[in-house]
């Protein structure tokens, strides 16, 4: 194994494996290549492994000398990544690896997400398994698929072979912050049937772009605008001035990423582009003032006259009404933990095709009742407008464990190593620990990770020095377990 663009970075074995991971496509739903890579690694290392039909992989390694009889420790992460890229990026993320590089302080990928979430967990695990000189108890390394699209791998995986009840999840993005509880969630899709008819007339392209986007869990409270909701408001304001017929609507790519851009096309007789852009200018001003969106753009453009199919004014009105009616972003804050988002949702994907409008949401809450109420509200709304509701990937909240040997050990080791006390927090984002806890009664788990910024966006970057510090911390913790 020889790193090329990340050569010289330390720890060399971790960054070497990370670069190999980046060299292969591994977006959610496209994990066969990386899953087989993990299996081949296990074979080469002479380790027992299992690979299921969904591509989840478990690798087992005995404890090192003197630690053979210790209780096993589960090291856990996920192999899939969120595939987002800049508009002008030529990389086909379904087929190609990433153009990974670094600036001395951070590793990043040119024009795309980096997949540090959660490729770094896989790299840590492989480096740990490959180096027999590292003291550790028996290890059960669990690498799941499709965490980013509803934790589907954690839902389907069979954990009956696992003996460990101590789990280190490496799927956090803040060094020195230990996550010990997280929200539960689900992915909800609203489908509204529409009909089309032949329409002839001036066609206008509407654009919302320049928004920051970000992770719909850990960044949902950062006052960032949702492009799909902004477009819904844009259309609503135009509709009050002139009747219109929608032809296209497309915004967002992932339910768990706050959409940065949205585009729609409409046909309307007597179009006054200047009047529409007056509406756009006012809305843009409001978005920039209301949200943390200094670069927000709302604009209308002339396009060629349409001779084709468009929604009726009635169906267009229903689409706009639903877009405006659905809730979005933070719905409740926690009283028990000030500053923690308790319940939220994100309209991550909006698509209008020939026969339907589809809206896909990531719904989260640390209170199961509030999650259910919010999902029910979405269902009632779409059914009121004549549509249907579907749901997938529901997962439970990971509840705080008052007595945790693992947490206490990690806090003690971290304080001794770095002469400061780590933060112990709950987060408003999905981690697989809740699902693992359901399958492994009595599980004691903590989630950690090195410093990462702007995950799920093309601005994502991974702190080099933080990767090394977190690696050294991981090794010290394993000595104590």
Give the number of helices: 11
Q: Based on helices, strands and strand pairing, what is the structural class?
A: alpha+beta
Overall pLDDT confidence? 94
Amount of helix: 25-40%
pLDDT < 50 runs, ≥5 residues: none
Shape: elongated
Short description:
The protein is of the alpha+beta class and 481 residues long.
Describe this structure in words.
The chain contains eleven helices and 23 strands. The chain is of the alpha+beta class. Strand 1 (48-51) and strand 2 (57-61) form a beta hairpin. The model has no long low-confidence stretch (mean pLDDT 94).
Layout of SSEs?
Elements lengths: L11 H11 L9 H14 L2 E4 L5 E5 L11 E6 L21 E3 L3 E4 L6 H15 L8 E6 L7 H5 L9 E5 L6 E6 L1 E10 L2 E14 L4 E2 L11 H13 L5 E7 L5 E2 L3 E6 L5 H18 L6 E15 L1 H13 L3 E5 L7 E12 L3 E10 L2 H17 L3 E8 L9 H14 L4 E5 L5 H7 L4 E5 L3 E2 L7 E3 H17 L1
Parallel strand pairs: 3-6, 3-7, 7-21, 8-20
Antiparallel strand pairs: 1-2, 2-6, 4-5, 5-23, 9-18, 9-19, 10-14, 10-15, 11-13, 12-14, 12-17, 16-17, 17-18, 22-23
Helix pairs in contact: 1-3, 5-6, 5-7, 9-11
């Amino acid at each position: 194994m020889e790193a090329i663009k990340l050569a010289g970075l330390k720890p060399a074995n971790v960054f070497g494996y990370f670069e190999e991971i980046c060299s292969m496509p591994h977006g959610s739903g496209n994990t066969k290549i990386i899953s087989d890579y993990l299996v081949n690694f296990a074979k080469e290392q002479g380790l027992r492994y299992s690979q299921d039909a969904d591509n989840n992989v478990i690798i087992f390694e005995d404890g090192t000398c003197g630690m053979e009889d210790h209780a096993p420790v589960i090291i856990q992460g996920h192999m899939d990544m969120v595939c987002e890229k800049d508009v002008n990026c030529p990389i086909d993320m379904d087929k190609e690896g990433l153009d990974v590089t670094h600036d001395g302080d951070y590793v990043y990928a040119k024009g795309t997400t980096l997949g540090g979430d959660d490729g770094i967990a896989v790299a840590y695990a492989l480096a740990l398994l490959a180096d027999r000189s590292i003291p550790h108890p028996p290890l059960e390394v669990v690498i799941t698929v499709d965490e980013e699209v509803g934790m589907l791998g954690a839902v389907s995986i069979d954990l009956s072979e696992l003996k460990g009840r101590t789990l280190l999840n490496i799927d956090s993005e803040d060094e020195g912050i230990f996550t010990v509880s997280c929200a539960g969630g689900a992915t909800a899709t609203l489908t509204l049937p529409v009909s089309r008819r032949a329409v002839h007339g001036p066609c206008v392209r509407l654009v919302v772009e320049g928004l920051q986007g970000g992770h719909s869990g850990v960044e949902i409270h950062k006052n960032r605008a949702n492009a799909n909701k902004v477009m819904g408001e844009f259309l609503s304001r135009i509709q009050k001035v002139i009747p219109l017929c929608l032809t296209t609507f497309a915004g967002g790519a992932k339910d768990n990423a706050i959409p940065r851009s949205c585009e729609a096309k409409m046909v309307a007789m007597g179009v006054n582009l200047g009047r529409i852009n007056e509406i756009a200018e006012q809305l843009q001003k409001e978005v920039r003032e209301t949200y943390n969106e200094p670069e927000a753009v709302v604009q209308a453009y002339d396009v060629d006259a349409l001779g084709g199919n468009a929604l009726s004014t009635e169906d267009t009105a229903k689409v706009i009404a639903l877009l405006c009616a659905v809730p979005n972003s933070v719905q409740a804050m926690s009283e028990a933990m000030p500053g923690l988002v308790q319940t939220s949702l994100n309209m991550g994907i909006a698509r209008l095709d020939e026969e339907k409008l589809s809206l896909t949401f990531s719904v989260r809450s640390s209170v199961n009742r509030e999650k259910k109420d919010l999902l029910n509200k979405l269902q009632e709304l779409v059914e009121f407008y004549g549509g249907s509701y579907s749901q997938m990937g529901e997962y439970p909240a990971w509840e705080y464990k008052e007595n945790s040997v693992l947490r206490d050990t990690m806090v003690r080791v971290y304080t001794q190593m770095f002469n400061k006390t780590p933060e112990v927090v709950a987060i408003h984002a999905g981690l697989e620990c809740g699902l693992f806890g359901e399958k492994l009664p009595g599980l004691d788990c903590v989630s950690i990770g090195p410093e990462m910024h702007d995950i799920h966006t093309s601005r994502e970057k991974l702190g080099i020095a933080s990767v090394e510090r977190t690696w050294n911390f991981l090794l010290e913790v394993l000595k104590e377990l």
